[in-house]
Amino acid sequence: MAGGGAGGGGRTQSAAFAPVRLWLLLPSWAVIAIFMGLPLLIMLVYSFLTKEFRGGVIWEFSLAAYDRFVFDRGLFGDDPPVLNTTYLTIFARSLIQALVATALCLLIGFPAAFYIATRPPEQRTLWLLLITVPYWVNLLIRTVSMKFLIRENGPLNEFLMGIGLISEPLPLVNTDIAVQLGLFYSYLPFMVLPIYAAVERYDFSLSEAAADLYADRWTILREVTLPAVRPGVIAGCILVFIPSLGAFLAPDLLGGARTFMIGSLIEEQFKGAAGDWPFGAAAATILMTIVLIALLLHARAEARREV
Amino acid sequence: MNVLKLGAAALILSAGAAGAQEKLSVYHWFEYIPQELVDKFTAETGIEVTIDTYDSNEALLANLKAGKLGSYDVAVPGDYMVSIMLGEGMLDEIQPGELKNIGNIEPQWADVAFDPGRKHSIPYQWGSTSFMVNRDAFKGDIRTTDIIFNPPAELSGKINVLDTAGETLTFASLHLGIPQCATDRAQLKALDDLVQGAKAHWASFNSDGAKDVLVSGDVAAGMIWNGFGQKARLEGANVEYAYPKEGYIVWMDNVVLLKDAPNRAAAIKFMDFLLEPENAAAVTNFARYTAGVKGVEPFLDEELKTSPEQNPPADAPAGTFVQVCDEATQKVYDQIWTRLKQ
Amino acid sequence: MARRNDVRRYPGFLGITLFCLVVLYAPLVVVAVYSFNASPSITLWGGFSFRWYEEVFFGLEAEKFKRAAWNSVTIALMAGGAATVIATAAALGMVRAGRFRGKGASFALLSLPIMAPEIVTAVATLIFFSLIGLTLGYGSILLAHIVFCIPFAYLPIAARLEGIEGAFDEAAQDLYATRWEAFRFILLPLLAPGIVSGFLLAFIISLDDFIITNFVKGAGVETLPTAIFGAVKQGIKPDIMALSTLMLGISIVLVTISYFVGKAGSTRR
Fold it and tell me: Is the distance from CB of B216 to CB of C43 less than 8 angstroms?
């Protein structure tokens, strides 16, 4: 599946390690189940409890959190319930934003990863490190600096006006474009590294064979190379898509925080004045359920491809 | 479980590194106490101080609620958060006579509604929340909350508001002249309509960047705290702080004694230390707000004594504290805020 | 002078790669330039000065920054390393051990740490840690980092492993190599680029984390992100820019060294 989930879209199946499978998988299962699974289980339980005013929970079963998500009872909470579009809007907005960010990272990250993977071996690591070096500087600092670059009287606009490309400064700050730019550079390596790892292994004699049959390069890339490096591409997409879905630094700082994203909505429930932990837990549960279903559907499709 | 063992070993190691020296654990805002002052305290008392930081009153509460109560001695919550923490039973009581310098507290802050009788807290700094306007962009009268909620054409679309429901909605209530924690439905509806309508004029919601957006020129007007605003002016922006005639918000941060404090005696010494006028003034000079302690004037920077941000004009109305609403009322305000940012 | 039908070269790919670097490095240029600004502002230029570097090395908070940087780097190295080892084993178990029931569920479990929004992980982990009575400190940060680094290391490694012919390790075993030898001498060298990618990802994820660290750290233990976050949120101060530039400098030096070491290694071969 995606980067090796349900069975590996690879060419041949090997079971060389089957006898020790359990020992290989046990450390990761145990670590994640105990230190991530149990905490998240607590969260799941919290989503069914009664909210304590100003954060925390009261140990009493309640569906209020899910009710709040689904039904709108007006400003004062006593109108007849109608379907609540508030949170659906927020989810849809975040979903679209994450999809666009993933597409953007793929469109630009794939050629970059491909280019790096086709460098002479001793240069490849250098290129990879070049992509990751900026991450030694905290994301927040980079985001603030990015904002500085693209603001109305910032260097980017001055440069573009200087070379005569535009006559008026582009209003970029507090727009969706700025948010996309922020997500793009937050998550680019998440796309480049897995694709690189796949392309680096790719057997170019396949492409050459295709070339001998007079296929042009772009057809070869699409029809031969891409399917072969698919696991890397999918791994990259997952690594960009899921964090983008919950991101709030880029939307808040570069987008102006005029609207909630899933990430900021959930954060507000735990850290904000509203302090509705069960609702935050419920929103997180719903988000994770959506992602989980998508991953499992994908795993199943991938397993079917293999047969 | 190897990892568990490894983790446990690392924990024991980090715990074992500590010496027998007396210690103090402070939970504080980011960038709100000068390091020199902490060093001075250590030099005077021999108490080793560790400082941990949070970025909002709510983050402080969330952290303590999720299990950090018992690991800190003192924290510095804002006024309304003191009463919330008091209600949560998170504060320890200061016994009469424990604090030698308790008499240094300014009379106006000696007994406050958020901590009746000052049994759990001492004043740290106080200030106001209002807004600043770039005088290059707008030259008219700015001493009105219309600037934010019903702005002139020059400012529309170039306004930043604070990204905290408490302050922004309270400010809107002042604009409308309605009480905080209103229960009257017509008033609440009016508040909802006001902010929904005003949002079209607002470019961004930003608290931490409130200064930055003014200095950089991203916005021409923005809500801001007075000390933070002064920094914006000192960085060269042509901005003016307003004390609007409809009113403005005042707030006070307080040093509280936390329940289950591991070093209670050291905490008391620290509070006494902060009540010394010279030390309170050092914080003021650093953070540019106002101390709640008598006799700080001789130690203050000259500029603070006359600055327009710290010294309201004589005809300015008194400021208003943000009130703590009951649960049912708060729910409506939360609803208004969520709808606003939908 | 690429041959017209060279399948390794595509027009524009170099351009796109350079574009990536420009986007990634442009904000860093701002950071580096303004770290030499004599004025304490990031909008106004006040002349060239080293004062913020002095501040970082000799200022009152120098000790705090030094410790925070040390914690950050050591935690990132250990968490990245541990996660990479665990993830490599997991990848072998998932990709190289035949089909088994619950493979989908196993994959979902491995991906769990990236599926949860960070703030939820942070609050949940803190509640869990205090429930089991784990003292908060360096160890709790390390533990939390290992957990959320695993999927970031796993995905590139598994993707790489899928591209390696299964025939290799089977052939090795046919030749009476032990399973360990098959892994060590056949699979590991082939897998290396995937492991490097996975480790690098895990490393930068750990190095950059603020939200989770801020919740699970104990009093007085700081990482670089938690030490500078407040200062940065309220508009970056030049000493933070100087510190960031130094971190960048260190990483560039490390990269250069590893490049020359790698080069020497490959020519010897």
Answer: yes
Q: Show the CA angle centred on residue B330, arms to residues A68 and B160, nearest 5°.
A: 95
Terminal Cα distance for chain B, rounded: 45
Residues of chain C with Cβ-Cβ distance to B211 below 8 Å are 234-235
Q: Where does B19-126+252-305 sit in CATH, by number?
A: 3.40.190.10
CA distance A244 to C113: 14
Cβ neighbours of C19 (radius 10 Å): 14
Which residue matches tokens 């509604």?
B113
C-alpha Rg value of chain B to the nearest Å: 22
Contact B114, B82 (CB under 8 A): yes
**C262 pLDDT above the threshold of 60:** no
B54 bridge partner residues? B29
Residue C202 carries which DSSP code?
H
Q: Is there a domain that residue A50 lies in?
A: no
CA angle A224, A228, A233 (to 5 degrees): 115
> Per the domain annotation, does A144 fall within a domain?
yes
Domains contained in chain A, number: 1
Q: Is the pLDDT of residue B4 over 60?
A: no
Q: CB within 8 A of C92, min separation 6: which ones?
A: A17, A24, C161, C183, C187
**Token pair in block for residue B38:** 């902490």
Cα C170 to Cα C213: distance, rounded to the nearest angstrom:
43
Inter-chain touch C229–B39, beta carbons under 8 Å: no
The whole model's pTM is what?
0.80
Within 8 A of A225 by CB-CB distance, chain C residues are 7
CATH code matching the domain that covers B127-250+312-341, chosen among 3.30.70.20, 1.10.3720.10, 3.80.10.10, 3.40.190.10:
3.40.190.10
Q: What letter would DSSP give residue B293?
A: B
Q: Does a structural domain hold residue A157?
A: yes
The secondary structure element, H or E, covering residue B265 is: helix B264-275
Question: B19-126+252-305 and B127-250+312-341: same fold?
Answer: yes
- Residue A3 pLDDT more than 60? no
Best C56, C143, C212 member to test B by mutation, with max B CBs in 10 Å, is C143
φ/ψ (deg, to 5) at A137: -100, 130
Residue C249: pLDDT band with limits 50, 70, 90:
confident
Domain membership of residue A287 (yes or no) is no
Residue whose C-alpha is closest to residue C180's, from C169, C192, C167, C191: C169
Chains in contact with A, where contact means 3 or more Cβ–Cβ distances below 8 Å, are B, C
Which of C233, C237, C241 to mutate to probe the B interface, most B CBs <10 Å? C233
Q: Which domain holds residue A201?
A: 84-269
Domain boundaries, given as residue ranges, for chain B: 19-126+252-305, 127-250+312-341
ipTM of the complex as predicted: 0.82
| Tens of pLDDT, residues A216-270 | 888 888 888 898 898 889 989 988 998 888 887 788 788 877 778 888 888 888 7
